[in-house]
Structure prediction request, 217 residues.
Amino acid sequence: MFLLKFAGFAGIVLVNDGIIQLPNVPNAQDFIFIYGVQAAIPNMFMWGILAVIVLAAVMSTTDRLMLTVGTYFSWDIYKKILKPDAPDNKVLLVSQISVFVAAAVTLLLALNPPDMLVWLIWAGIGIMFSTFAVPLLAGLYWRRATREGALGSMALGLIASLVFGGISYFKLAKLPMHFSFYAFVIAVVAMILVSLITRPTSDKVLDETMTGWYISK
Prediction:
């Protein structure tokens, strides 16, 4: 992540100094990495090797994300919630359909990328942070955390991130910090309050899972 940020900063400097010139398209910033590499490595042979490396990384990441989407819809939603008695072939079919739909939508967005594509990427990171970070950390280190507290934290964190994300995107109000920070605070409060008013997890389970500050011991 830091290397990507440094590459972006370097690309901005190259543009401002007139070393590279981005194309006149709506999403010109998406070309900054490619043009920067072309300016730094003019040798076409080395550029070809780098292009293969980048494409391999893109393909492996895309495969993982597509499989994750298929697993979420087929197993976490269809199998566990909608139809627990579904046979394996039906679960596999739902996974295949989910992957196909996700790939088709991604292809359509890639053909005509929206102006808010970069915003969506950071919004997705912020939504995941405000939804999953608190239950994960509390489940590892806070012995008073409960299942109900984790569910409440995830639900309110997701809702709050969508609300504050909409406020930030549509500029309904000026937020001095990224919208995920406010959703994260709400998730923390929900985790604490719901956990304290629900039945605590047994010490036997907590000891077997080594929940708490064992890392400090």
Notes: DSSP finds eight helices and no strands in the chain.
